[in-house]
Amino acid sequence: MKKMLFMLAVLLAGLGLGGGAAFATVKLLGPAKPGSAAAAAHEEAAPAFVDGGKVLAPLVFADGRLSGYVQFSVQLGVPEDKAEFVTARLPLLLHAVNMRTYRTPMAAGPDGLIPDLDTFRKIVMTAGNEAFGPGVLRKVAITQASPA
Question: For residue 29, what are the CA distances in angstroms to 18, 23, 24, 64?
Fold first, then answer.
């Protein structure tokens, strides 16, 4: 019985100490007040979407055989202040996408005529880091995929 009371006392002391430490941390370092400079720095601005145009990409099987071609329409989510920069460098993005799609298997489905959209999105994100620099391209929206 004595051992059980000791264990219960240790448990309650641990909970009290942990709760007190959490309360003190929130009081000292608490969340940033709305409207302050710290809150503004942490808020992420809504991205502006830049039309990436139409991208013609080959559908390749895992063994390297060509299945066909697909045409994607993409929208690129970038910070508003970088929209003109991204628009001017779209040819570099298209080049980087072309250099990756022919060697990346994207053909899905039994006949290989369905494109794997997640794979294409990852390709565009990787190519965006190369063409625009890291952190500029935040989102890629594939608005249309059709066989070419």
Answer: 16, 10, 8, 55
CATH for 48-147 is 3.30.479
- pLDDT tens, 29-67? 877 666 665 555 555 567 789 999 999 999 999 888 898
Distance (Å, rounded) from C-alpha 112 to C-alpha 125? 23
Calpha distance 14→46 (Å, rounded): 43
Assess contact for 79 and 47: CB atoms under 8 A.
Answer: yes
Beta-carbon contacts of 100 under 8 Å, excluding residues fewer than 6 positions away, are: 123, 126, 127
Whole-angstrom distance, CA of residue 45 vs CA of residue 31: 19
* Residue position matching structure tokens 């990436």: 52
Q: What Å distances lie between residue 79 and 49, 86, 129, 138, CA to CA?
A: 8, 10, 14, 8
Domain range summary for the chain, segments of one domain joined by +: 2-42, 48-147
